[in-house]
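A.,

Following up on our hallway conversation. Structure tokens first:
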């Protein structure tokens, strides 16, 4: 899917994206409007139009579909730049969950599904959500607990269940619903306007600049056509894993960028602020925090690039994507926490973006699999396969 692009061309593209994010997108971050969805959606739409005019949108989509056709490895630098701003991924059309959903649809959608769902999603004319998580006792970290049912009918399927934390669900035009059919877990494409598909509420969370919310959804005798089935019946968990591997990497790339920006702000502050007769940047404890942040970000980038290369090579990378997700999700939080600590009271205020960056990063240790679940899976694979460290 990737296009042929020289290292010099990629470097120029990333530089162009960096200038767009720094000069156009970041100045549009109005911190006072961080919870105003109408403002965020309208601003995101304006920025996406500007980015499209510069040819900067949809990095993973094929050139034939209007995207940049970047490889996974090429995306590492590009999405890190996009992630420097809360609004950057939306502007460059690589925000979650839309971008991971695009990857899934590109792999599985039939011709009709591509026309109805994939093409409008790539173009930014429709929004998607991925509806898997359920309230207790339904599915959370353990996919075996899935309760939502898909019953085959003469005309298609009937879906019944209860979902929540469906990211983007508050504004989605369609959902990819995970449900249990007779043959096993399966995926279904459902227009959110379908009778029986009801958004109960948008679950409030700690995140600022959350454009699409985390919807609680009720599926009550929601009838869809036979063509709503995405891929093969019974292979939903394999497909969900395919989506999650890419989603985890996208999160790693973007959030490395946001935490890097946090440390950049802290460094600038420490280079000007005087305390106890010296600049903060001259205090060894501050220097240690800055040094550790750069070490962690360097390691996070290397781990993400290595996993991306494996994905480009078509390798099975459940083990490596889990390790990358755990390490990067925790590293970016440590970096942001140090940035807040260095900047003191200003860091925890909402006069500056640092406290919002920290709140934005914190859920990544839970999204796409909690760190504890990944660690357990990593260890089980190690013992089962006797992997060398």
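Then the amino acids I'd put at each of the 389 positions:
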């Amino acid at each position: 899917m990737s296009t042929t692009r020289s290292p010099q061309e990629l470097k120029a593209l990333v530089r162009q994206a960096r200038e767009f994010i720094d000069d156009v997108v970041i100045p549009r971050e109005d911190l006072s409007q961080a919870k105003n969805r109408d403002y965020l959606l309208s601003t995101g739409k304006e920025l996406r139009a500007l980015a499209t005019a510069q040819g900067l949108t949809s990095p993973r989509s094929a050139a034939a579909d209007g995207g940049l056709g970047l490889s996974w490895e090429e995306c590492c630098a590009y999405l890190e730049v996009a992630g420097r701003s809360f609004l950057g991924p939306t502007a460059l059309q690589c925000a979650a969950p839309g971008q991971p959903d695009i990857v899934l649809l590109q792999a599985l959608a039939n011709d009709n599904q591509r026309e109805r769902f994939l093409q409008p999603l790539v173009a930014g004319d429709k929004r998607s959500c991925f509806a898997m998580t359920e309230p207790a006792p339904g599915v959370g970290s353990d996919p075996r607990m899935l309760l939502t049912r898909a019953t085959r009918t003469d005309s298609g399927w009937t879906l019944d269940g209860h979902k929540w934390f469906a990211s983007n669900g508050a504004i989605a035009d369609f959902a990819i619903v995970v449900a249990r059919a007779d043959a096993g877990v399966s995926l279904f494409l459902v227009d959110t306007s379908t009778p029986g598909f009801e958004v109960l509420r948008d679950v409030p969370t700690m995140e600022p600049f959350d454009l699409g919310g985390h919807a609680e959804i009720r599926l009550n005798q929601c009838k869809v056509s036979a063509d709503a089935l995405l891929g093969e019946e019974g292979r939903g968990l394999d497909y969900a894993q395919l989506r999650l591997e890419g989603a985890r990497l996208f999160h790693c790339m973007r959030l490395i960028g946001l935490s890097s920006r946090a440390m950049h702000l802290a460094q600038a502050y420490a280079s000007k602020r005087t305390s106890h007769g010296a600049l903060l940047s001259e205090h060894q404890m501050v220097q240690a925090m800055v040094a550790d942040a750069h070490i962690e970000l360097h390691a996070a980038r290397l781990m993400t690039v290595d996993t991306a290369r494996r994905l480009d090579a078509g390798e099975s990378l459940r083990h490596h994507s889990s390790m990358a997700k755990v390490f990067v999700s925790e590293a970016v939080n440590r970096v942001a926490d140090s940035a807040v600590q260095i900047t003191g009271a200003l860091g925890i205020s909402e006069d500056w973006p640092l406290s919002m960056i920290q709140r934005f990063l914190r859920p990544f240790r839970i999204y796409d699999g909690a760190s504890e679940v990944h660690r357990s899976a990593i260890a089980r694979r190690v013992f089962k396969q006797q992997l060398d460290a």
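Strands lie at 128-131, 149-152, 156-167, 174-181, 184-191, 197-202, 214-225, 229-230, 274-275, 278-279. Curious whether your intuition agrees with the design.

B.
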